[in-house]
């Protein structure tokens, strides 16, 4: 197995630049730009496993499903199957763009996508307090109907309508870990844990079943990194560096922080937004605590410079 294994987590929102660029062609182009940076890593000797978000993409699948059901009576697509659908589609775009980029550069590297299940604990407290909104807005009568007939958890969203909410449990096992490790051992670039993985739970006999939930892709990528023996976790996001007191007059960009400092900032609870940067910092600290060597948070265009130590935020032991 390569001594330089990195796991890179790509945000699903980075593949949808704005409302005017949501088509498959637009997403493909956004993936193309990201893959150039991943190819740069490969040229520097890294074997890369790629995790990616899928929030917008799952939203599109759910909306198509809702419309098809309302207009034609076609069955709706369950959330776990939406995750599998988007893993395949986004994986296809990533692996084709990487294949072509490697071909142009003369890099002898193969690419594969693994449709990946990630086990969660049915007893995870997140299932008692679902908070992750998915799908379209509804009026109150439809929301109450769904709550009654399909056992949905629904909430009113700041006067904009009602939405379904699902749990966001912690990942505990990458089911296809042996397959991913085997491909990495062969020197392949592997696309896996898409959208944080398809959430599954195990029964008393160990048999798996999909469950309506959303796993944080940074947490899943962190877990994957330790499972495959990666030395680096790279989280690609919307900002070049992490900031303390983000958006406040005393905002301070951070070049480097230790594991101890990162945990201290998380405990203070005032520096990183719970729905955006805090999970990324947490994913990095868990990766380091479980044996990883270092982590970087930066935006896609600065991946190369961050690896060279010129920018980005490094988190080290």
Overall description:
- By secondary structure, this protein is an alpha/beta fold.
- It has a single domain, classed as Carbamate kinase (3-Layer(aba) Sandwich), CATH 3.40.1160.
- The chain is built from nine helices and 17 strands.
- The chain has helices spanning about 25-45, 55-70, 80-105, 140-150, 175-185, 215-225, 260-270, 275-290, 305, and strands at about 5-10, 45-50, 110-115, 115-120, 130-140, 155, 160-165, 170-175, 190, 200, 210, 230-235, 240-245, 250-255, 255-260, 295-300, 315.
- An eight-stranded mixed sheet has the order 3-9-2-1-12-16-17-15, with helices on both faces. It has a four-stranded mixed sheet with strand order 8-4-10-11.
- Helix 1 (about 25-45) links the parallel strand 1 and strand 2 (about 45-50).
- The chain starts with a strand and ends with a strand.
Helices and strands, with pairings:
Elements: E1 5-10, H1 24-43, E2 47-52, H2 55-72, H3 79-105, E3 111-113, E4 117-120, E5 132-138, H4 140-150, E6 153-156, E7 162-166, E8 171-174, H5 177-185, E9 189-191, E10 198-202, E11 208-210, H6 217-227, E12 232-236, E13 242-244, E14 252-254, E15 256-258, H7 259-268, H8 277-289, E16 294-298, H9 303-307, E17 313-316
Parallel strand pairs: 1-2, 1-12, 2-9, 3-9, 4-10, 12-16, 15-17
Antiparallel strand pairs: 4-8, 5-7, 6-7, 10-11, 13-14, 16-17
Summarize the structure.
With 317 residues, this protein is of the alpha/beta class.
